[in-house]
TrEMBL record, chains A, B:
Pfam families, alphabetized: polyprenyl_synt
Cross-referenced SUPFAM superfamilies: Terpenoid synthases
Family: Belongs to the FPP/GGPP synthase family.
GO biological process annotation, one example: isoprenoid biosynthetic process
Cofactors demanded by this protein: Mg(2+)
Keyword annotations: Magnesium, Metal-binding, Transferase
Domain of life: Bacteria
GO terms of molecular function: metal ion binding; prenyltransferase activity
Keyword set includes Transcription: no
Name of the protein described by the UniProt record: Polyprenyl synthetase family protein
Amino acid sequence: MQLHPMWDAYPNLQTDLKDVLTTIEKSIQIRDKQVEKNVKDLIHAGGKLLRPAYALLAAQIGPDHDRDRAIAVAGALEVLHMATLIHDDVVDDAPTRRGIPTIHSKYGRNYAVYTGDYLFCICFKILSSHANSVENIEFNSKNIEKILMGELDQMRMRYDINVTVRQYLSRISGKTAQLFALSTFSGASQSKATRFQVRNAWNIGHYLGMAFQIIDDVLDYTSSDDGLGKPVLNDVKQGVYTLPLIYAMQKHPSEFQPLLEKQLDMSDEDLEQLLVLIAKYKGVEQAFTLADKYTKKALREIKKLPAGAYRDQMYELTSSILKRNI
Amino acid sequence: MQLHPMWDAYPNLQTDLKDVLTTIEKSIQIRDKQVEKNVKDLIHAGGKLLRPAYALLAAQIGPDHDRDRAIAVAGALEVLHMATLIHDDVVDDAPTRRGIPTIHSKYGRNYAVYTGDYLFCICFKILSSHANSVENIEFNSKNIEKILMGELDQMRMRYDINVTVRQYLSRISGKTAQLFALSTFSGASQSKATRFQVRNAWNIGHYLGMAFQIIDDVLDYTSSDDGLGKPVLNDVKQGVYTLPLIYAMQKHPSEFQPLLEKQLDMSDEDLEQLLVLIAKYKGVEQAFTLADKYTKKALREIKKLPAGAYRDQMYELTSSILKRNI
């Protein structure tokens, strides 16, 4: 089983994450063995497993650390993440994910829709067979609802040139930070951590999720897929306006309007021009500054946790994944 | 609030079903008010509400009849049904459902995928806020998993001319009977019915679900949408081979093969020819005979329940919805 090399620096976590993958693999049984294989390939295609990792670390906050239960809950969170990825790929018509063909490009969107649904159920199945209480599950389903509201919001705001920073933050809070917060929360709450610590854990996930998504969105403007040095610009091509663009637009909306109004008909020159404008108004720098603020908040919250090796690992992990260059 | 006129004959159930719709309506809050309206229109567009009705009736089997809880669980079941319908419409590219435009034809498949996901979560949210125990939820999510397996199976077997009666029954057992069984089961188990009665309730739902789906599938060969008297034949056009065809095919496969091999290219004459063959080998009659068997099994199980007005209603309802002409 091949994990992302980043985990070589965390041997304990590496062992646990391998068990998370085994748990997930065991719970997925699709009669169509081709689809099953594809789902399992996706599991092993080197996703970073950040959400389960944070759940595992947070499960060591309280006095009642039950390794098996922690691994199960971490697995449920990754399955949920996979379900949303598969449905996102249907929506975005993405040809590949983690370097392998997406379910929908290989088997049609029909399979992809139902396979995503199936994984949602697997998530609830794992959760309910390991949850402490009904309250815990209720909490989880309310959260998952918020995650989906974030996705619906994102679609609703496509091509909206009046989108505000506040709306953007609310959207990524639902779409991304919610699942990270759910991960650290679930870990902490099952370990019988104090009420304060559980809230603490929730905040860690929330802040790091915000920073993570902002950085991810910035990378769409700054990094290239093909090695030719050209930024990907997938978001803006799909009408999803993220923080660097929103910040820049605020400075001088009328300069952006004629470009963005073309929507799907934006040419390569238009995109080039957009990058020039974003650079002119320092959209990327400003976005990084906000990401840094969230990172610092996350790190500050981590320091409030009871001391221990797990806390040091969480601190180190958070610092390293939120470095700008990854 | 307009319910299907069939409920006029059951005033108590009618009142309860109206409260089920109110519960569902309250639990659905989508920021995009247009989509919310569309989802709510779908709720009120005169679906038969059979699944919640059976859950409500079954909730009167045991001694502990809690009306509020019964209504909540019935609502969760209908929401689950709606979620699968919305995703089915995405998969089938259906333009309308219950006479109103489908979510995906009106807002795009993107919205439809996420709206279905959202309703899945609403279902779990309602269930978990009213469930007796974690075991109950676990049971439910395992069942929903089976329902989705039925959908995946159906797609896997598209255009498979070797599909057997057994495979067909296993598919509709997952796709349809499972949700009916879950409805009667959930009703009974929350009413503190005995273990025997709960199993009894499960069987009722299973048998009536089997009969219901077989009849529904037969209607695709015998009834017309447009009043012109031409059968719809939606299933066979989409490569979904149902019982009348499977029975007829078994008699003389080689007569069917050249027609069905054309798959999407079947002409109107080919379809006409297919109907002739199915009539020749009495596929429809044989399918009705099997539906009757399941109906009788369901009625026999209902008679085993403790006597009461609810039992008489269940018996009458089951007899009337499984009459061949609806």
